Amino acid sequence: MTPELDPVIHAQARLRVVVTLNALAQGDQITFPGLKDLLGMTAGNLSVHLSKLEEAGYVEIVKTHKGRTPVTYVALTRRGRLAFEEYTAAIRELLGTAGTPAPGDT
Amino acid sequence: MDEDERPLSPEETLRLIEQQETVVAKRLIPDMTLHHLAWGAAWFVGFGAFFLHHGLSGTPYARIPITVAMALLTGLMALAMLVSVFTVWQLRSPVHGASQERGSLYGLTWFFGFLAMWMIAVRFGSLLPGPERSLLWASLSMMVVAILYMVSGIVWPIRPMFVLGAGVAVLNAVGTAAGPGWHALLIAVGAGGGSIVTGLVSRRRRRR
Prior knowledge:
Chain A: Residues 21-95 form the Winged helix DNA-binding domain. Chain A: InterPro entries: ArsR-like_HTH, WH-like_DNA-bd_sf, WH_DNA-bd_dom, WH_DNA-bd_sf. The complex is a heterodimer of chains A (106) and B (208). Chain A is α+β, with helices and mostly antiparallel strands and 106 residues long. Chain A is 47% helix and 19% strand. Chain A is elongated, with a radius of gyration of 15 Å.
């Protein structure tokens, strides 16, 4: 009876991407370099993970211009938020801590 | 990539989530410590000078001309304002969208609040004797501060900011009823000291 873990999210790097985007308020986007810094990933590595998440419909990538410089904004979609919610619920269920706050260990 | 693909245990996963959430919060939420300390010092020293000028029973405790007290308070508040602007600027937030817009509207709200206050104080202040005029300016500006601190405490939500705003609102009301000397004393010690305490509390919260 182990709950199914979403394979798109259940990979260290992509999980960190999703956690970071989920921390933004709904309706907010983050610049690609900003996201890269928060994750400490290389641009290439982050791009690969973002395209996998985009394929799954979990993130939205918007390419636009600020003056003449191109800017890329990244955000979690509603579907992505929902998937992350279900993922954390499944993890807590596996730990048997559903409904209780996570232990604040060191 | 190998390390990335290694399956994590549920415990490790949860820890990873919490760690990353902390990293994000530290990077995207401004550290309000310096802001609160700067405003605390400005109010403590500035209103402290007003308190010494007015005295509790109308007799000054020190010969500080009103112009000096005014210059001290205004100068220190201008410095504190720079600290506030720096607090937001140094964040150079990579976030764009709804919360950025909310931040701009919040800034505008301060502007409109003080515009209204300024107009009221200029118009009615000229009808009042010196100490009452000084109380009018002080109480109106602290009212705007108290209300907006409470609002930002609710919107963001930052509980210490709400508590500070509510405390300033009460002291402002009591001080206004009691007179210019008392008002300056309550704001210097209560709002100034309260802001410094709030700064230290937010610093501790952030370190945790």
